[in-house]
């Protein structure tokens, strides 16, 4: 039976380093290639020895697909392609292709320069890896080869995140990382409705959470900013150029307008340029709010938000500043942080995850004294707030996704086994559900349908044969020849196309009978006998001295050796094989007296 | 087709939202897959909720968001979500659910018969809630049972659908340890322990019985404190020992447990008076705020009143605080029935933390600011 095999190399019952192998219709695909952020040794990478013990992966993989730019999904890509070795195609959406190398380089710098690690990929490796990338457009079918087809759909998790539909023949797999409820409502995502893949692979990390509303998160953000401004403090928000910065800006601008606030809000220029550039490139990927803002007015022509200048950091009084980089590990945001850290009226709001080794990570872990360059110490007196704005699906969202897609089988990765039993049970009320561990292969039997076309002539001929109309409860056998290239045709046409002559098969059988009568009398007796036994069949006594039962011909002649014996000659064509053998056995028993 | 995830920014910043920046210390808004009629504490950090539709329903044990519970480290915690720590399936609706203190067991009733179902919530090794047994009730009525429990060894449960059928049953053996000797067959609106052995059985008609499980002596009965057909009751434990009775017309009467017949004070609450069913309304004393109580189901809001300062002569009372979150954030414009609040509970220790649930599946966790302290 045909099957699709799925093996998580990382992220099976484990959070971090997503990497899933799929074997479908003879093709091998790697979905994501992530890094486990919690380990500092080789455990941070997926275990590629599962694919092959020695050497390069190129011959073993048909393609690699990356779902989005988060490091736990693409962090091990340069390691895999340049250090383990893979030269085949790597597919990802345009935004992912633009953002990945930036994050990978940042991450590499922090790991090697700050933490002093060796055996890590180099900047050149990142560049070489990205050269192998083939960008995907949304809703565009890509033929990886003449059998494997892939298509990307909007997933909404972060900019550029995609759900992927993989098809080989009539078997298909859909891989989704974390579907945003929004993505399910978005007009572009209506495709998933009843797409019925053989397997739907999804993360279950957030399947056991029930998410607090976006509104409440924004409320908390505004409350914190407002309270700080009211007491005369300054708010620093370190951001990544393409993270939530733009949305938070729009939120603050509207709030400032509503509350008639006067404190200045600044956006550092480096951020502006980069953001403008990316948003122009990826305008179709952003949500309507941002698009409206960008199209109606230039991104940063806000009434209350102005471009930042370094010197403003020393101005007295309340203000809000958005600056890069997001983890406070270098650059402008770190400079501002150093200036403002000593005042307890100030606040820094961290809108996302910070990699180990960065200042962001340290202060989020409660560190209040930081060692800076030149052995100086920085006392952290300002308020540190950690806020999460990431838009991922929750329990309800995942069930919605599954019910819309209607997969034949559901496969969950990225969760802990003991905490997933209830979810598995819930899904199993409606669908098959698997939850493999790392290195464990799930083989799902598929039942691919093979479409067959039928020639019109054949169909017409069957209809003219008469009898009852086709009935689903009473299938009728028909004869034809299936040419595997095209359609079901009549035998004559098949023979014609193949240049063959039709051959008729006839069987002959001799039966000895003891019968003293004349040949014609014996024949007559045979005729009478058969007529009484085979009431449903057409039996004829022909003037040429033969008896015919359907197409079976029976002749009588006298035996040369024995005067009282007769030799019956029976002859039938292949189609009447059953009847023919029956007759010969019958006649062997002799005739009634 | 526009974005349907959240309303546009300008709509988000509506009056209620702006107000909430000052009026709530914390506010969390969640959407369950199915609405719940019960919220029951199973520990200081976890609650149970369950569906009440006619077919199969889920029972979920949810852990409160870490950010809400983290006191000193609050600002460093970004975790705002509920976590489903355990889940299970019930064949029928769950209209009443009570946790048996000191155990991982909960007892449920489907609101249709007086039978009870027993469940094991599960420990760390599994996340599945399993049914472990059932207890037969004694009522022949069509109404569901009320359930109450307090810490006892071995575990026991107090239950009954009517005043005539209240009994205390041992969970392990199913043995009946005590029966309330009352002839009247009034349906109960609530059952609550006020001490280790004393409990209050409150009827829908406003009558309350104070009884003790150690004695077979007849209970103290107190007739309805006013003219109204439908009442709800709550009692606070020692040292306050107050009993509040609330009528469907919005009359609130506070008495001392030791003198049920005498009303300490009365007030007319600011509520809408329209026909109600017994299960619509919840009235609850705040466990950590003297004299404060909350009401839901008589208007589209959760109202908090302060009864300190109420006098014996009835007066009009205005709520100290109102939570309008459910009606404000419900899905508008599709012509369906207005959202109503199905239940609410106070956190047992945190003074102003309340959880409320509504018919649209929403569940809110809020920590309100006392408007009087400014």
UniProtKB/TrEMBL annotation, chain A:
<dbReference type="InterPro" id="IPR048662">
    <property type="entry name" value="IntS11_C"/>
</dbReference>
<dbReference type="InterPro" id="IPR001279">
    <property type="entry name" value="Metallo-B-lactamas"/>
</dbReference>
<dbReference type="Pfam" id="PF21386">
    <property type="entry name" value="IntS11_C"/>
</dbReference>
<keyword id="KW-0378">Hydrolase</keyword>
<keyword id="KW-0539">Nucleus</keyword>
<dbReference type="Pfam" id="PF10996">
    <property type="entry name" value="Beta-Casp"/>
</dbReference>
<keyword id="KW-0963">Cytoplasm</keyword>
<dbReference type="Pfam" id="PF07521">
    <property type="entry name" value="RMMBL"/>
</dbReference>
<keyword id="KW-0862">Zinc</keyword>
<dbReference type="InterPro" id="IPR011108">
    <property type="entry name" value="RMMBL"/>
</dbReference>
<feature type="domain" description="Beta-Casp">
    <location>
        <begin position="245"/>
        <end position="363"/>
    </location>
</feature>
<dbReference type="GO" id="GO:0046872">
    <property type="term" value="F:metal ion binding"/>
</dbReference>
<dbReference type="GO" id="GO:0005634">
    <property type="term" value="C:nucleus"/>
</dbReference>
<dbReference type="GO" id="GO:0005737">
    <property type="term" value="C:cytoplasm"/>
</dbReference>
<dbReference type="GO" id="GO:0004521">
    <property type="term" value="F:RNA endonuclease activity"/>
</dbReference>
<keyword id="KW-0479">Metal-binding</keyword>
<dbReference type="GO" id="GO:0016787">
    <property type="term" value="F:hydrolase activity"/>
</dbReference>
<dbReference type="Pfam" id="PF16661">
    <property type="entry name" value="Lactamase_B_6"/>
</dbReference>
<comment type="similarity">
    <text>Belongs to the metallo-beta-lactamase superfamily. RNA-metabolizing metallo-beta-lactamase-like family. INTS11 subfamily.</text>
</comment>
<dbReference type="InterPro" id="IPR036866">
    <property type="entry name" value="RibonucZ/Hydroxyglut_hydro"/>
</dbReference>
<dbReference type="InterPro" id="IPR041897">
    <property type="entry name" value="INTS11-like_MBL-fold"/>
</dbReference>
<protein>
    <recommendedName>
        <fullName>Integrator complex subunit 11</fullName>
    </recommendedName>
</protein>
From TrEMBL, chain B:
<dbReference type="GO" id="GO:0031122">
    <property type="term" value="P:cytoplasmic microtubule organization"/>
</dbReference>
<dbReference type="InterPro" id="IPR015943">
    <property type="entry name" value="WD40/YVTN_repeat-like_dom_sf"/>
</dbReference>
<protein>
    <submittedName>
        <fullName>WD repeat domain 73</fullName>
    </submittedName>
</protein>
<dbReference type="GO" id="GO:0005829">
    <property type="term" value="C:cytosol"/>
</dbReference>
<dbReference type="InterPro" id="IPR001680">
    <property type="entry name" value="WD40_rpt"/>
</dbReference>
<dbReference type="InterPro" id="IPR036322">
    <property type="entry name" value="WD40_repeat_dom_sf"/>
</dbReference>
<dbReference type="GO" id="GO:0000922">
    <property type="term" value="C:spindle pole"/>
</dbReference>
<dbReference type="InterPro" id="IPR042795">
    <property type="entry name" value="Wdr73"/>
</dbReference>
